[in-house]
Design a protein that fits this description.
438 residues; mainly alpha; Growth Hormone, Chain: A; 18 helices; globular; 77% helix; two-stranded antiparallel ribbon
Length: 438
């Protein structure tokens, strides 16, 4: 339940701020991309250090809880301030563009810092509050709340530009402010159980090792490194999809009202949720690796259609074309959302079985470093693509159409690497082998 609020705010911000700052606040698209890239570097390093220090933390509140208590208010405050720069400066004044850029990059980086600070520790709890038999069920509950958050955050993310009123300067309407405040309050309420109630299993001791030693253990784990590369190339495309969606629907597909946006938004989000549970069935029959490869190929096939979907929409209707496009996109994305929690927890448990030590924090945290470096590079490329479109054509339309063909090949790279990564461990065999010294 605790994941709902932070995940909601992260989804909304990921989907909305790139387009909002580029249009409503008129920030240069390349500077926009640089801000996003910097924020991913921040969140990656924060994941790493938080994972390590939450493994070593020893306090009367436990290893993970202090991070949740400190970080949750930071998430709320910085998320709110991201959408109200007009309270502090004239966003319509071109002479203040560098000031706006500074405001944007500071609060976006702070939001990402507090998010990683809080949620890395929160996620590292999973193998410490469950055993391997319980983990899929608990992960399912976590993902249910996460998907509910993604759905609500995604819907509001789709609608966010429509919640701004004309200026100068453009600013959030009263309705927009009230919605933002409401979800900030929900975030703190839903985090209360994590801040007060959750307890780890007894007998888990802090790890007394250096950050360098712990990181060395992680990078020597071939399964972990292989999974990191898979997730890196996959996220390179997924983050571009997420950050382009709002502008793509409004400017390419001409869905510029809440009524017009709703069917496409609900199609994608509904597909993501429905296919999440269908993938659970598929995993039981095919295993995690084969299921994820199918999802990656599905995304790679449909993503390039962004370049021609406007023409398809002109022929069959923009709403119908968008719905038909986003159903398979949501299906492909949902398998990654499922795997993103289960696989790192499995890797941490395999390591614990072999070494006898719990270091879920470093596995949960360190993967954020390369993952977010991939996302940072993706954001720079996307910002550059958008600014190139402005320079070449006078607007961002071409950039919003061609992100699909540009980013789709990285999905096939991820699928190729995944063929050589074992993400279906046999826990019982490992326990028998290492418990009996075989």
């Amino acid at each position: 339940m605790g994941r709902f609020g932070p995940a909601f705010l992260m989804t909304m911000i990921t989907m909305a701020v790139f387009y909002v700052y580029g249009t409503s606040f008129q920030l240069n698209w390349f500077l926009n991309g640089i801000s996003l890239a910097t924020s991913y570097v921040v969140i990656g390093l924060t994941h790493w250090f938080t994972g390590y220090y939450s493994d070593r933390m020893e306090s009367r509140w436990g290893r993970r809880r202090p991070f949740v208590i400190i970080g949750t208010p930071g998430i709320i405050i910085t998320a709110f301030l991201l959408f109200v720069p007009n309270w502090f400066l004239d966003t319509a004044n071109p002479a203040l563009e560098l000031v706006l850029f500074t405001y944007y990059i500071v609060f976006l980086c702070l939001f990402k810092f507090f998010y990683a600070f809080t949620m890395t520790a929160h996620q590292a709890w999973l193998p410490e509050i469950t055993d391997d038999a319980e983990r899929p069920l608990v992960s399912g509950f976590m993902n249910t709340f996460n998907f509910a958050a993604d759905s609500a955050g995604g819907i509001l993310g789709f609608m966010t530009p429509l919640l701004f009123v004309a200026g100068p300067p453009e600013q959030l309407s009263e309705t927009g402010l009230n919605l933002l405040l409401l979800f900030c309050i929900i975030t703190i309420i839903f985090m209360l159980p994590s801040m007060v109630v959750i307890r780890a299993k007894p007998g888990i001791k802090p790890i007394e090792r250096s950050l360098r030693e712990e990181t060395r253990v992680a990078v020597r784990n071939r399964t972990f490194i292989g999974w990191t590369l898979v997730v890196g190339f996959l996220s390179f495309t997924l983050i571009a999809i997420t950050q382009s969606l709002v502008g793509f629907l409004q400017e390419v597909m001409l869905l510029d009202s809440i009524g017009a946006l709703a069917p496409a938004a609900l199609a994608m989000l509904g597909s993501t949720i429905v296919f999440f549970y269908l993938w659970l069935t598929g995993i039981k029959r095919l295993g995690k690796k084969k299921s994820l490869i199918i999802g990656l190929v599905l995304l790679a096939v449909f993503t390039p259609l962004s370049a021609v979907l406007r023409n398809i929409g002109a022929a069959i209707g923009y709403t119908l074309a968008a719905v038909l496009f986003f159903v398979p996109i949501g299906a492909g994305m949902s398998i990654y959302y499922l795997m993103s929690y289960v696989v790192p927890a499995d890797i941490a448990q395999v390591d614990e079985i072999i070494t006898g030590e719990s270091r879920s924090g470093i596995y949960t945290g360190f993967i954020g470093v390369p993952l977010n470096m991939f996302q940072a590079a993706s954001s720079v490329l996307l910002g550059g693509l958008m600014q190139l479109s402005v320079i070449m054509t006078g607007g961002e339309l071409s950039g919003l159409m061609w992100w699909g063909p540009v980013f789709a090949p990285f999905l096939l790279i991820a699928a190729f690497i995944l063929r050589y990564v074992d993400i279906d461990p046999d826990f019982e065999a490992l326990k028998q082998q290492h418990n009996h010294g075989e």
